[in-house]
Amino acid sequence: MARDRSQELLAHADALYNLARYLTGRDADAEDLVQETYSRALAAAPRLVDGSNVRAWLFQILRNTFISAWRHKKRDPTVGGLDTVAPAVEPPVVDDAMRQAAARDLEAAMLTLPEDARLVILLDLEGFTETEVAEIVGCAVGTVKSRLFRARSALRSRLAGYRT
Amino acid sequence: MTCDDVRPLLLAYARGTLTDRAAVAAHLEGCAACARLVVAEGALDDALGRLPQAAASLALKRRLRGQAPPAPAALPRRRLALVGAGVAALAAAVALWLVLRAPGTRPVEDEALADHLRVVASAHPLDVESGGVHQVKPWFSGRLDFAPRVGDSGDDFPLAGGALAIFEGRKAATFVYKRRLHTISLFVVPAGGLDWPSGPRRVAGFNQRYWRDGELGYVLVSDVDGGELDELARRLRAP
């Protein structure tokens, strides 16, 4: 693989690590996850077609690596299918609480969400389009829309707890 | 449209990115609950702008770099034309490797150099390209929870564009300038809690110029002459 390709992959290390940290909840696990992701990416890079969306491809590898190699390691009560969770009948509107939420409160609230909720919120925050998110998580664009809505509703509910 | 139809579209509506807004707008006129959700989606976007961002440690980056295959010893003749760009990226990587291994360097100076080398080595370092600071600064609005104060760099230091970066684990603004064939990076970082240097530094052959403006720390990094970097710093600090 060309050296410049490995440099290109390295340019995304910070963003990958940030997502990994929110998925695993632990710095050490996040580092291992990024390292395994990078290892898999280097192995697969020769098959990467020129002009591919390398950034989305890397996040897809990280997501798949997390599911296959990490998630089964723990019994996380927040692990679950967001698509199977019934949406709140009337999601609370807590914009005052959100405006007052400190950074650490936001982080804590994020970490209480199911993994797939964290994933879609963070991919959206990273600036990925709904089409790219759909490619990364392996679902339809319409599913991304509804999953993101549910995830953000759940986060708003968590942040309501920080209302002062 | 029902509430269930509309709600997955409200985020795009709140962000102004929904192409077909008429049907949603019609629903919102008669549905106070969904209208409140539009406000809530905007407020949540604002809040998520404060979500802590974590950057990969230097040790992890060093390990990742160690996984990459070594550069080939010889290149086919037909690829020699590409050597110039390759050498620049490789030189940046080698300089980064050297500085990361250099004992006694300080975290902010290391981070400034590493981030500059990423700009130099990246094929697409800019999120927004521009011919002027009045196009780049507004682009950061909504993407950062602070506003960089940057003066006019002048025609001899053209602004190539800007990008978001993670600097010492916090969101930072990157401005990229050109000086002949050289690249100059300016990083603007919320510096609270950081041991922000002041004045000139030289790390691994790269000049750095630091200053602060309130809570914001500024650092210029480049391989241009120190006097030229001083001149650019003077212009950027001008109100």
Features:
heterodimer; A: 164 residues; mainly alpha; 66% helix; globular; B: 239 residues; alpha+beta; 7-stranded antiparallel beta sheet; 7 strands; 41% helix
Short description:
The complex is a heterodimer of chains A (164) and B (239). Chain A has 164 residues and is mainly alpha-helical.
What does this 3D model show about the protein?
The complex is a heterodimer of chains A (164) and B (239). Chain A has helices spanning 3-10, 13-24, 27-44, 54-70, 95-100, 103-111, 115-125, 130-137, 141-160. Chain A is an all-alpha fold. The longest helix of chain A is centred in the C-terminal third of the chain and has 20 residues, at 141-160. By secondary structure, chain B is of the alpha+beta class. Helices cover 41% and strands 21% of the residues of chain B. Chain B has helices at 3-6, 10-15, 22-29, 32-48, 58-67, 83-101, 107-121, 133-140, 226-237, and strands spanning 128-129, 159-167, 170-179, 182-190, 199-203, 206-213, 216-222. A seven-stranded antiparallel beta sheet of chain B has the order 1-2-3-4-7-6-5, sandwiched between helices. The longest helix of chain B has 19 residues, at 83-101. The chains are: A mainly alpha (164), B alpha+beta (239). Chains A and B meet through α1, α2, α3, α5 and α6 of A and α4, α5 and α6 of B.
Q: Biggest sheet of chain B, open or closed, and with what strands and sense?
A: 7 strands, antiparallel
Radius of gyration from the alpha-carbon trace of chain B, in angstroms: 22 Å
Major beta-sheet overview of chain A: none
User: How many distinct beta strands of chain B?
Assistant: 7
Shape of chain B: elongated
Radius of gyration of chain A: 17 Å
Helix content of chain B: 40-55%
Number of helices of chain B: 9
Beta-strand percent range of chain B: 15-25%
Given the helix and strand composition of chain A, which structural class is it? mainly alpha
Question: Could you tell me the strand content of chain A as a percent range?
Answer: under 5%
Please work out how many helical segments of chain A DSSP would assign. 9
Secondary-structure class of chain B: alpha+beta
Strands of the largest sheet of chain B, in order across it? 1-2-3-4-7-6-5
Please provide the ordered H/E string of secondary-structure elements of chain B: HHHHHHHEHEEEEEEH
